[in-house]
Design goal:
It is built from five helices and four strands, in the order αααβαββαβ. The chain has helices at about 5-15, 25-30, 35-45, 80-90, 115-125, and strands spanning about 65-75, 95-100, 105-115, 135-140.
Length: about 150
């Protein structure tokens, strides 16, 4: 894990708010000149502290008006079953997050769809149709009160 000093943290906070800042604007906001700011950002990227820069699209703006968290329990925990499930979530665009979890379920998925019927269709016709899922528990999101991708640095 690379050591982050106060300047690195300041740059990371600024970039997490707006990754489209020019090097000059970023440098000014961080109290640096352009060259040192650029070198620090490049180092943070090379060290993997900044994994990638993306555009965040609100789900509703992409026509995704339904969201759910789905806990998934698998029938078996063989290497083949786990690999098959992992391949499934990696290739399904409607699965926007997947985590292996502790407790009575094996995974927690965050799924988006155009509407509640689309969520039901995905769960019934895609997820359960895999034949490797023992059961699911679905929690529909009624309203999202906070969403952030920013890490507290």
């Amino acid at each position: 894990m690379p050591e982050l000093d106060d300047t690195d943290r300041r740059l990371l906070r600024l970039l997490q708010q707006d990754a489209t800042l020019s090097t000059q604007a970023l440098a000014e906001a961080a109290g640096l000149s352009s060259s040192p700011a650029w070198r620090r950002v490049r180092r943070l990227m090379d060290e993997g502290v900044i994994a990638r820069q993306v555009a965040l699209v609100p789900p509703a703006k992409a026509g995704m008006h339904a969201m759910a968290y789905v806990q998934v329990s698998l029938l078996q925990h063989t290497e083949d079953t786990l690999a098959r499930f992992d391949r499934f979530v990696q290739t399904e665009d409607q699965v926007v997050e997947c985590a292996t979890i502790t407790g009575s379920s094996d995974y927690l998925l965050k799924i988006v769809a155009p509407d509640p019927e689309g969520l039901e269709h995905f769960i019934m016709r895609r997820l359960l149709a895999l034949g490797i899922v023992r059961g699911t528990q679905t929690n529909f999101v009624l309203r999202q009160t906070k969403y952030s991708t920013a890490m507290p640095v």
